[in-house]
Write the structure tokens for this entry.
Amino acid sequence: MDRRKKVSKETTPAASKPSVVEASPSISFSEAFTVNLLCGLGLALAFFVSNNIYSIDLVTDPSLTLFLISIIQLPIVILLYSRYRLNRKKCSYLRAVGRGIIGVPVGALLNSLGAIALGAPVTFQYLPKTLYWSLMMSLFTTVPASCVLGSSWADWKRIFAHTKPNGSVEYLICLQAHGAVIGGWFGAWPMPLDWERPWQEWPISVSYGTLAGYLVALVASLGFVLAHPRLQHVKNE
């Protein structure tokens, strides 16, 4: 009898020990402002290079313009968001960078399939345009989450499916991804209209809508980051 009691005392604490899950990283408003500012400046630099060096824009050469946006924005997004990775003890900075790089083709594939499912042309003429638009979209949607969350499906589902970010970094990821998607959706509205404007061609208007939605989300996410501590204080009370 005494032996059974001894065994139960030894096994009970181990069985009831709660699993420790690392919370999502939180950053200050000034740091979030710096991250968003650098991302916005990356877009400005891409358009500057397109207009002043190559003398093109989204209307005259959408493929090359989208490629320049992607290639300039890629290192900025990955290097910035890899700093806020979850579980830093097990995940190094370089590993987070690697996850972000993997997220580029995966996100591009998902975005291209989604665009095609919603009516994007699939002819050979539009294939490069769809590819470069999808690369740009992946930088706004899947790449930041890949750097921070990795393969944590529960966190991906909570942020993107249930829209329940927890922490300032997740607010940046969630709002900017949703802003890009919603902006692209609104940008697609003029495409079927018979205005016969060059910017109605795929993916020009969608790209403008995506960029507008992303830029609006850059600003809006800062408001949520600023209000997040107050909301947490109200919940705790």
Q: What stands out?
A: Residues 43 and 69 are 6 Å apart (CA to CA). The first helix runs from residue 2 to 15. The chain has nine helices and no strands. Residues 1-21 have pLDDT under 50 and may be disordered.
